[in-house]
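Let us practice reading a record.
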Amino acid sequence: MSEREGNGTKHVNIRTVAYGRTAMILLAFLAQLGLMVVGYYVLSSYSFWFYGLFVLISVIALLNIYTSWGNPDIKLSWMFPIAIFPIFGSIVYVTILSQPGTKVIYSKLQGLSKFTRKHIDPNSDVCEKLSRDNPQMGRLGCYLWNCDCSPVYENTRVKYYSLGDEQFPDMVEALKKAKRFIFMEFFIVSEGYMWDVILNILREKAAQGVEVRLMYDGTCALWYLPGNYPQQLEKDGIRCKMFSPVKFLFSPHFNNRDHRKVVVVDGEVAFTGGINLADEYINLKPRFGHWKDAGIMLTGAAVERFTYMFLEMWNVSEKTEEKYSLYERKDLLWTAGDGYVIPYSVCPMGMERVGERVYLDVINTAHTYVHIMTPYLIPDYQMITALTYAARRGVEVIIIMPHVPDKKYAFVLAKTYYNQLLKAGVRLCEYEPGFVHAKVFVSDDEKAVVGTVNLDYRSLYHHFECGVVLYKNSQVAEAERDVMETLKKCLEMTPEDYKRLRLRDRFLGKIMRIIAPMM
């Protein structure tokens, strides 16, 4: 246990935690599961009719799984517990399928998206220009507008960061220049040098009359920050809230976390990428060797999308209507940028999987190469098919992953996919100095995607995420240069590497593949 006092706030945090975020969420799930087990046995012991009801639920659940739209991997994962525990597995499936909290959030976001669509210029002229330049990219732009309210932008300058160490000073300078508002949304906020510097600026700006809002994921309250932290910041004039605080019993959407990293300053500057607000992200606190991350700064017209992206998420739990007009910056004349920029968000609810669609589009339209950096590799069937097909048709596919993992189970699970990808010609490389947390796709010296979306089920199916598509932008070359420099520090994997794994780890990895879509 350690005690930290700074900036006038004193509290005690427990730093030694036995489990990671996923384990804590799993614990919450198991607590709810336990209640259902007790309820099941109590009811089934009373009457034959209850047993008949449970059998009927099982049949309905199987029919629904078989006939519903969705990823076949996820369907098979649900059939596994139903096959082993025919009745109880079905009850779990029906309970999770009917989560009211998740449906409420999705309904609210749909309504907010329709409302913000009135304020965002669809930039139809820019989209038509992109379509003439590259019809396929034009269709991607059309998809992102129709499914995510994300227009295609020009007049936006972009800066790519190959490390959190590089992004942090520019973020600090941007925050210091704020005059109207600061919006911040992060998955992790942890006390230390990085957060202390930013928090001091936020307090100063709030005292100057700048509107400051901070939102972070509810899992931070498990060990990074005290449970009453929002109330503490409110005293300093900073509007603060947790997204989906973790509740161990009857949490309506415990598995849908806010994994986004967004900073918006005055509607003029925005940051996103893999960098959270904790010292390891700027290599001040070694955890898993050298922390390799990536981020991006936008200045200009495309910042508009991040402004509304933040406001939509903030207002999910608000009852009063947001005055969006207060944050419009149509008064500004943006200087010309280079190329096209499409910011987008990812919602884990509904029919669309925007994060995966963007990645698949990059892979499936690549002519020469696709280079990827990701901390996790737990792909679904569609992603495996796209990666292997690209490699077999002669596209150079390189995936850079960590050599020093942050989660052992995710590392072991990722290795179960190695041989299948290697046999198809995909090159898999591990960053020997430490941990890769960057989420970057680069293709054909023309396209790049930088954001928060990992190549695993959590990011692609369960988390709220965001990213930026770049096309014919000068920073595509910077992203590719970063990949090539990182590659020099990597170990290239071979089929022999999987054989060196202990038999226990190989068995564990195969078992975990069965439940990976639900993790």
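A brief commentary: The first helix runs from residue 21 to 44.
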